[in-house]
Design a protein that fits this description.
Helices cover 18% and strands 26% of the residues. The protein is an alpha+beta fold.
């Protein structure tokens, strides 16, 4: 059965990099099995003291039990509304798991290439989209849930004084593993930009990362923001 709560029991600021590995009883979750247990699903949710509002495309909801929010950051996990509700609500959509991590921005957002280096994986391709630069990572997605593809998408952008990191995992062979996954990240990023009250002064800042990768990432995704 799906229990998104278990995906992020030990959430920290590093969840953006670790992928919030999903384990329950020592094994990866069976993400495609809705089962009888369901979790509260939300259409949208505020993070970072209300400055950032997260919502998914139609058919995707936030698992309320994964929400973590402080004045400076937060975390949310999104999945199919139908799966979260045990088939009781929402249209049928491609199964997928999206994590959103918010922390203080201390500089520009890391590029997909920098994220790949930090994750010790290869960057298969990059998509420069209207709301986020997304990168397809070669490995790491296989730990998200039973049957998830090793390839997954990640992206990051700065909005006001907040850094928003996105990671999308999907089953093997899913369209979300391919170009559709990059479009999914762009849609979520657009919705966050449009609905959040965070200052827009830095929203169009370059997405490059000027500091050395290791030092910058340790600062951007430190655990203090989510404690």
């Amino acid at each position: 059965m799906i229990r998104l709560t278990a995906l992020c029991v030990a959430l920290s600021g590093a969840a953006f990099l670790t992928g919030c590995d999903a384990v329950e009883g020592g094994a990866a979750l069976s993400f495609l099995d809705a089962g009888q247990d369901t979790n509260p699903a939300l259409i949208s949710a505020p993070l970072a003291g209300g400055d950032i509002t997260v919502s998914g495309p139609e058919g995707y909801c936030i698992d309320a039990t994964t929400l973590r929010s402080t004045n400076s950051g937060g975390f949310a996990a999104l999945a199919s509304c139908r799966i979260l509700s045990g088939g009781e609500a929402g249209p049928i959509v491609e199964p997928g798991l999206l994590t959103v991590t918010v922390s203080r921005a201390t500089g520009d957002a890391p590029t997909p290439a920098v994220l790949a280096i930090a994750l010790n994986t290869d960057l298969l391709r990059e998509a420069e989209l209207s709301s986020v630069n997304a990168g397809q990572m070669a490995t790491g997605g296989e730990a998200a849930f039973d049957g998830s593809d090793a390839r997954h998408w990640r992206g990051a952008f700065v909005l006001g004084n907040r850094l928003i990191g996105l990671a999308l995992y999907a089953p093997e062979g899913s369209p979300l593993v391919g170009a559709q996954g990059a479009a999914f990240l762009n849609t979520v990023s657009s919705r966050i930009r449009a609905s959040s009250r965070a200052g827009e002064a830095r929203a169009d800042a370059p997405q490059s990362m000027t500091d050395p990768a290791t030092r910058r990432l340790s600062r951007l995704f430190g655990t203090n923001d989510l404690q």
